[in-house]
């Protein structure tokens, strides 16, 4: 990339070539019951089957694999509520380096243990009082580590866009693609790929009602901060969109739908019972928007990205009432 503030379709295609054979090409599933309930043809891109159980590996590997040998020798740092943490930890192992991850104290145990299992050092903070960006940047500077942020990086955004690129390559042109929104990296990459291939395709983000910072920001025309959301969708508990991701999404995203925690529970239960998929709350928000009829007018052919499936059996049972 020559312009680090601009992400292009070519950048996403370049990322796809870089991660080929390292990241999984995840399946696209269909369900007649889902189509009937939604009233459209729905194509489900299952990033819960990605390495580390989430789309985050795509962006982490695309960014970190471009570091110089000298940078890699010193190690990588990141801050994350869970999935990006695991992605950076595994990426570091793949690239033969070390990783230090700043994680919230209340990160689900399964995500914390998985991150440690990939060999990363973990430093915790209180997400409701601490500033993870400041902590992560200070840590990286102090130890001389390369910081790989969860979404505020053009190579991370381009890597995340490869999921949509694969989806469109497999099923053809869609009328719309529906994407969970946290910090905005996945939808920024998705929008870059989708609009680059088919400019008329609608790009629809989905946020939990308690954390509608991107919706408010797009409506205001500037980045708007909200209180740190308290939602079961921990991967979407962002309080303000990223500066870079917002600049992309402001140009390319068509709309944001909101879903309740109860709607997310219902979507997780549907995916488990009818599609045999285990999805974490953040990963289920796109399905929740479709099943809850939160999108109008309804497109005829819809792609939805299930962004992750990292959830313990105990937590899954608590949420869906098993």
Tell me about this structure.
The structure is a single chain. This protein has 322 residues and is an alpha/beta fold. The chain has helices at residues 9-19, 32-38, 56-64, 69-74, 83-95, 109-117, 132-143, 154-160, 162-171, 185-197, 213-220, 243-252, 261-275, 281-291, 313-320, and strands at residues 28-29, 41-46, 76-79, 99-104, 121-125, 146-147, 176-180, 202-208, 255-259, 301-306. A 6-stranded mixed β-sheet has the order 1-2-10-7-8-9, with helices on both faces. Helix 3 (56-64) packs across helix 8, helix 10 packs parallel to helix 12 (243-252) and helix 13 (261-275) crosses helix 14. The chain is globular. The relative contact order is 0.16.
Brief write-up:
This protein has helices at residues 9-19, 32-38, 56-64, 69-74, 83-95, 109-117, 132-143, 154-160, 162-171, 185-197, 213-220, 243-252, 261-275, 281-291, 313-320, and strands at residues 28-29, 41-46, 76-79, 99-104, 121-125, 146-147, 176-180, 202-208, 255-259, 301-306. The protein is an alpha/beta fold and 322 residues long. Helix 10 links the parallel strand 7 and strand 8 (202-208).
């Amino acid at each position: 990339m020559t312009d680090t503030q601009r992400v292009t379709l070519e950048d996403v295609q370049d990322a796809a070539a870089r991660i080929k054979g390292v990241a999984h090409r995840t399946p696209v599933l269909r369900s007649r019951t889902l189509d009937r309930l939604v009233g459209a043809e729905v194509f489900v891109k299952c990033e819960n089957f990605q390495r580390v159980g989430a789309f985050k590996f795509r962006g982490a590997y695309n960014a970190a694999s471009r570091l110089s040998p000298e940078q890699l020798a010193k190690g990588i740092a990141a801050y994350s509520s869970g999935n990006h943490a695991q992605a950076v930890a595994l990426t570091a192992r793949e690239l033969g380096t070390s990783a230090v991850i700043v994680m919230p104290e209340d990160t689900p145990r399964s995500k914390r243990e998985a991150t440690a299992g990939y060999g990363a050092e973990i430093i915790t903070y209180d997400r409701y009082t601490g500033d993870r960006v400041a902590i992560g940047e200070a840590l990286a500077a102090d130890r001389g580590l390369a910081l790989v942020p969860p979404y505020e990086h053009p190579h991370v955004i381009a890597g995340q866009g490869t999921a949509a690129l694969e989806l469109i390559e497999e099923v053809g042109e869609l009328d719309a693609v529906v994407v969970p929104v946290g910090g905005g990296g996945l939808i920024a990459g998705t929008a870059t790929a989708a609009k680059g291939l088919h400019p008329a395709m609608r790009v629809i983000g989905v946020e939990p009602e308690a954390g509608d910072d991107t919706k408010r920001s797009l409506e205001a025309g500037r980045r708007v901060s909200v209180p740190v959301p308290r939602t079961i969708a921990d991967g979407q508990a962002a309080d303000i969109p990223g500066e870079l991701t917002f600049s992309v999404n402001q140009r390319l995203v068509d709309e944001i739908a909101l879903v309740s925690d109860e709607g997310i529970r219902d979507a997780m239960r549907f995916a488990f019972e009818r599609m045999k998929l285990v999805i974490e709350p953040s990963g289920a928000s796109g399905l929740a928007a479709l099943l809850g009829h939160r999108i109008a007018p309804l497109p005829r052919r819809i792609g939805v990205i299930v962004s992750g499936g990292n959830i313990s059996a105990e937590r899954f049972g608590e949420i869906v009432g098993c």
